[in-house]
Write a structure and sequence with these properties.
alpha/beta; binds inosinic acid; 20 strands; Adenylosuccinate Synthetase, Chain A, domain 1
Length: 423
């Protein structure tokens, strides 16, 4: 029996999709545990690119049952578009399941997210996918879940209740047009039929699978530093990307977890607002952005780029309890004489190796760097650790030692085959 968690170790976009695809080879179930259509996971197989937002990317493996577990929030419109695209690419969706406890992202959630983000003050730089408002309704206990969608009368009651609270905000706070109950119910009734074949009791499905010795993989979205509690609040998402979130989001007990894989880029990126100590505003940053194609899968936004921040990564290793690390996009760093890695912060005159998650304080931190020798060779064709140039190997060993976590997978390009497994 194994239950593996795959967690983003930075601010999201660590190429988790590729690592999930690799580890899903030995899984029977792949369950997405948090976030919603704000996520974008890209997987390239034999020259075909698949883009996932809600469906677990593990579905590409024919033995896998892919589960959208209860910690996820599901936007029905985005889901319909994604299903159609995957169907067109020939992906077998009969192995998809959706938890009946999944909360639905509604048109009013998207609208509220957009309206809030259009205010100049306090902007978070969200994906405008309605994520925050959906989780807010969940916490306020007025959310609408998949189980509600399956019964019309129950659905009408739930939606009526939430519109009584949300419509006045839409109208009076933001001066926008309220949502009409009847139109919304008609739209939802159509989606109910789209979802019905996939609905399941996700915690029972996964607990039974574990008891029968079936290997499970839990697929995270976003990253540790975007966690609602452990990230750089308020510049975070509204769910729990951390490993503990995998238990909350799936119902799998913490003592069942056997491996916790952190996925980190060989440098750092961030999308949206918020402090970023190692951010580069120069031509080096430009070069990394272009070589790494650092533009969002979901929004197309240019990502902010910086040197590898080991202070932040060590925090992620500790918060999540990483047993393994996967290092991605190492090929992007080829061609630099030297590479900087941040090994401490200076904050209010003191040096520290402890990450400061408080956004206000983090913005005051000065990164302190160690310079390592770079390598000039193109490494995208390397398939074993020993084929990597010596300085690339040193770079990896430096990370392992700092984090006290072994690097077990190295990605040197987007293709499935551009992967090095470290013995
Ligand atoms: P939200 O999740 O759309 O509410 O956005 C909150 C913050 O999380 C913003 O800074 C977003 O840019 C960031 N974010 C959300 N999803 C992702 C992702 O998949 N990758 C990277 N950043 C993300």
């Amino acid at each position: 029996m194994s239950a593996i968690v795959v967690v983003g170790a930075q601010w999201g976009d660590e190429a988790k999709g590729k690592i999930v695809d690799l580890l899903a080879q030995r899984a029977r179930y792949v369950a997405r545990y948090a976030g919603g259509s704000n996520a974008g996971h890209t997987v390239c197989v034999h020259g075909t690119t698949y883009k996932f937002h809600l469906v677990p990317s593990g579905i590409l493996h024919p033995q896998v049952t892919a589960v959208i577990a209860d910690g996820v929030v599901l936007d029905l419109r985005a889901f319909e578009i994604e299903l159609a695209a995957l169907q067109q690419q020939g992906v077998d969706l009969s192995r998809l399941r959706i938890g009946q406890g999944v909360h639905l992202t509604m048109p009013y959630h998207r609208l509220l997210d957009e309206l809030e983000e259009s205010q100049v003050e306090g902007r978070i730089g969200t994906t405008k996918r309605g994520i925050g408002p959906t989780y807010a309704d969940k916490a306020w206990r007025i959310g609408v879940r998949v189980a509600d969608l399956m019964e019309r009368e129950r659905l009408v009651q739930r939606v009526q209740r939430v519109l009584r609270r949300r419509n006045p905000t839409i109208e009076r706070v933001y001066g926008a047009k309220p949502i009409t109950l009847d139109t919304l119910i008609e739209e939802l009734a159509r989606y109910a039929e789209l979802l019905r074949p996939y609905v399941c009791d996700a915690p029972h499905l996964l607990m039974n699978a574990l008891e029968q010795g079936e290997p499970i993989l839990m697929e995270g979205a976003q990253g540790t530093l975007l966690d609602l509690d452990y990230g750089t609040y308020p510049y975070v998402t509204s769910s729990h990307p951390v490993a503990a979130g995998a238990c909350l989001g799936t119902g799998v007990a913490p003592n069942r977890l056997t491996e916790i894989w952190g996925v980190a880029k060989a440098y750092t990126t961030r999308v949206g607002e918020g402090p970023f100590p190692t951010e580069l505003h120069d031509t080096i940053g430009e070069r990394i952005r272009n070589r790494g194609r650092e533009y969002g899968t979901t929004t197309g936004r240019a990502r902010r780029v910086g040197w590898l921040d080991l202070v932040a990564l060590r925090y992620a290793a500790r918060v999540n309890g990483f047993t393994h690390l996967a290092l991605t996009l190492l090929d992007v760093l080829s061609g630099f004489e030297t590479l900087k890695v941040c090994t401490a912060y200076r904050w209010r005159g003191k040096e520290t190796r402890e990450f400061i998650a408080d956004a206000h304080q983090l913005a005051q931190c000065e990164p302190l760097y160690t310079e390592l020798d770079g390598w000039m060779e193109d490494i995208s064709g390397c398939r074993t650790f020993d084929e990597l140039p010596p300085n690339a190997r040193r770079y990896i060993h430096f990370i392992e030692e700092y984090l006290n976590t072994p690097v077990k997978v190295i990605s040197v390009g987007p293709g499935r085959e551009q992967t090095i497994l470290v013995e």
